Each structure stands twice: as C-alpha cells, then as structure tokens.
Amino acid sequence: MFYRPEDGHGLPRNPFTAIVAPRPIGWISTRGSIGANLAPYSFFNAVAYEPPQVMFASTGAKDSWRNIRETGVFCVNIVGEDQFHAMSETSASVAPEVDEFALAHVAMAECQAIACPRVADAPAALECRMTQIIELAGKNNFLILGQVVGVHLRDDCLSDGRLDARKYRPVARMGYMDYAVIRDLVELPRPDER
C-alpha cells in the first residue's frame, strides 16, 4: 500500500500514529494564572545531550501551551506502569480551570528549580525552561522545546547507579489506542565499546 497524506489513506484509522512506535510519553505539567495542568503528549522526546533538551508537540492551543507561553517553564513527568491509568485520565478534554492532578487523583509536588508542579511519584521528572515555541505547518501545530534545568529520579527506580526501567516499566504509545509497557531490556554495546 502507498498513499499520499494529502489524498487520504482510505483506512478506518490514520496509520501515521502507529508508524513511528513505540513513542515515549511526556506527561507535561504546568501552572498558569488559571491553575495547574497535567496532560500526556506522545509526540515527545529528548533531542540534545549537552545541555540536556527535550521537545514535545501539541496540536491545538492547549492549556499546556498557554501556560508555557505565560510562564516559560514546564515539567516532563515520565510515565511508569503504575501511572498508566491516571495518565490516561488526564488526557480528557476539560475546561482550562479544571485541575487534572485532582481529576485523576495524582499527587502533586513542587519542582525545585522552576515554579511548576510535578507528579510526586513519577519515576523521573525533568524540570524545563522553555527555549522555543515553533509554529509548525498545519492548523495550530506547535513544537515546544525546553532545556532541562533539574532532574528528579525516584530512589527505588535506581539499581547500581543506573535508572532501571525494569523497576518502573515505562509506558509507550503505539498508535491508535494502543500502548506498550516495557518490561524486558536487551543490552547491546556499540562496536567501539566491546
């Protein structure tokens, strides 16, 4: 099968969301003048190592986007298997004044380097200062870039000085309404490290 996106795919659901998979989920927390917000984004990833930087994309001028434009900060909370259902609850379309932390019964903690809430029991959380918001092609598509200025790691997710994904089992987006939970790891050193 071949199709041009502008011509449509002719399938019951858009396959584009399932092609690039698995995708990590950035559970983005913000606070603005209306209050706290917590929302998952599967168009998310780390993009640079030194200084550490992340990005996520938003379709629509959502509350996260508005709060980041207002404050210049956000926090990326990593979703483990224990947070899977709460993360899904925070994807609901609700009014801007609704606090998704309260809605999904997610414990909130304050960040340390920025004025922003974070998910208290997230396996890891990245406190970020927004560096750019780029308007992408299409209607209301935005790319938000941020520099990581603080990192939280849950102590019980560390093993031998490493963040151990087997301890928290990251959740990834597969497309459509499908997700994966990472339980198995395979180590493969690079050729120059063997």
Automatic annotation (TrEMBL):
Q: Where is the Flavin reductase like domain?
A: 18-165
What does the record give under GO molecular function? FMN binding; oxidoreductase activity, acting on the CH-NH group of donors, NAD or NADP as acceptor
Pfam families in the cross-refs = Flavin_Reduct
InterPro entries assigned to the protein according to its UniProt record, in alphabetical order: Flavin_Rdtase-like_dom (IPR002563), Split_barrel_FMN-bd (IPR012349)
The protein here is known as Flavin reductase
Task: Give the species.
Answer: Neogemmobacter tilapiae
